[in-house]
Every structure is written in C-alpha cells, then in structure tokens.
Design goal:
The chain has no helices and nine strands. By secondary structure, the chain is an all-beta fold. The strands form two sheets. Strands 2, 4, 5, 6 and 8 form a five-stranded antiparallel beta sheet that branches.
Length: about 100
C-alpha cells in the first residue's frame, strides 16, 4: 500500500508544498464572495505555476465549498486565491 499524505493550505500559507503524486481529493472552504480557489502545479521550468486539470479535464478550481478529485504527478503545488478570503484547503491522497 502506498504512503498516504495530507496537506492543509490556507489564505496565510497558500504553499508551495511537496506532494508525492497519485490520486488526491482537493477540498476547500472559504468566504468566496464571487472569488475562487484553484490548485496549481509547478511547471517544468521550475518557476511557473499553472492550474492543474481535475480527472474530468476541467480546471481544479472551486467557487463554492466542496471537493474535487485530481490525479497529480510528484511535485510542488500551491493555491491560487482570487478574491476569496478565510481560505482553508486540504489536499489528501486517496489510498489504493
């Protein structure tokens, strides 16, 4: 069984954090106020972050409290917070 991992990210500490890779649940609560919270991964240039797609192929971005399932490569990840406040996000691996 693969090691499990869970990271909490907030408005005050949006990352980056290192993730092992695999299937993860991305959950967010916030005062959205028309804003959004997205999960971004570090691109191969080692400097640029971009929003990662979820398993349905859409951006891993929430505009209301909820969950998304995402498959991630090992690497560095952070939140992109647009307008939302009081953000608490969880990125938790799903055991196989």
């Amino acid at each position: 069984m693969a090691a499990t991992q869970s990271k909490t990210l907030t408005s005050a500490a949006p990352g980056p954090v290192s993730l092992y890779g695999g299937r993860y649940l991305f959950g967010v609560t916030a005062t959205f106020g028309g804003g959004s919270v997205a999960l971004q991964g570090l691109l191969p240039d080692g400097a640029t972050y971009a929003t990662v797609p979820n398993i349905a192929g859409a951006a891993t971005s929430l505009t209301a409290a909820g969950w998304m399932t995402v498959d991630l490569a090992p690497g560095m990840y952070q939140l992109l917070i647009t307008t939302a406040t009081a953000v608490t996000a969880s990125v938790s691996s799903v055991p196989c």
